[in-house]
Amino acid sequence: MSGVTGTTLWYVRWHTGAGPRTGEPPPGPAPELLDLLYGITPVVEVLPPNAALADVRGALRYFDRGPEQLAELLRVRTFARYGVTCAIGVAGNRMLATMAAWAGPADGVHVVPGTPEAVAAFLRPRPVADLPGVGPATAGTLARHGLYTIGDVADLPLPTLQRLLGRSAGRHLHEHARGHDPRPVVRHAPAPSLTAERAFPLDTVDQAVVRRALLALTVDLGAELRGTGQVAHALTLVVRYADRSTTTRSRALPDPANSTAALTRCAYRLQDALGLQRARVRAVALRADGLTPAATTPAQLSLDPVDERARRLEAVADRAAARFTSGVVSLATLLPPRDAA
Fold this sequence. Notes:
This protein is α+β, with helices and mostly antiparallel strands. Helix 8 (about 160-165) crosses helix 9 (about 165-175) and helix 10 (about 205-225) packs antiparallel against helix 11. The strands form 2 sheets. The protein has a 5-stranded mixed β-sheet with strand order 2-3-1-4-5. Strands 6, 7, 8, 9 and 10 form a 5-stranded antiparallel β-sheet that branches. It has helices spanning about 30-40, 60-65, 65-80, 95-105, 115-125, 135-145, 150-155, 160-165, 165-175, 205-225, 260-275, 305-325, and strands at about 10-15, 45, 50-55, 85-90, 110, 195-205, 230-240, 245-255, 280-290, 290-295. Helices cover about 40% and strands about 20% of the residues. The longest helix has 21 residues, at about 205-225. The radius of gyration is 23 Å and the shape is globular. The chain contains 12 helices and 10 strands. Pfam families: IMS (PF00817), IMS_C (PF11799), IMS_HHH_1 (PF21999). One of its GO terms (biological process) is DNA repair.
């Protein structure tokens, strides 16, 4: 058995051609494609809409192949049986495997060897925006200080990077720039969903009332997502009318999220897109779709102080709810009106 030491993680990205329509929740890879992967290893983490991570260290001896040769076997089987091409990144951790799959050919296997020299050779020339969590704002901040490549960031002392980005964001970026990512592959079933619903005492045409209900739903969903350690990739709004008909609309979130603010922005956009001004609404429901573990889902580094403050307030509210009772800390707009004097 031959192979590259320390490269037992795969990131598999299938090119199915169709894909979900814009704004619809990611359903996850087709079951038949996942079955081929499960036929090699049971340690699979599904990543909607069209990817999965796999730990193949237990499969190497059984198949008597190295990780690169085994990945090539999966690629060939996938095309032979279903006519679907895939890119497979092979590396020592999930970040490197993911980057390898996107950096390599659209239909092929790209290996990042596990030696420090090979990891550095792969990472250092690449733009810093290739690292997980580095969006335009973070990349812009780094560029203003002459930091354009991953190598530039890796060479920067950690305290200096933390002064630029903050303690937590700076530490994570410093680790990623040096090729470190301790997150494991988390086995779980294809992403489930969470639903919250509000029925009105009387049918309403008041869109402010509907908006208030949506805010209450996003508060509930956000708290449940954070409490279960998950993030949502999309949101679905279901509106039930007085005549018992329904309308359903979905929208992908800009980034996987469990914050009430992000969920609320998405819910309001869904409401605005429906144009419900004259509709008699009986109930509304929100469904958080494409759930994945928050601990292993790459997160966008935020430099927005408003977003950071909102997250801190959510953490306080979550702790208070866990210690006392649900609703002990609530948004002011959700509190019942005071009795008239």
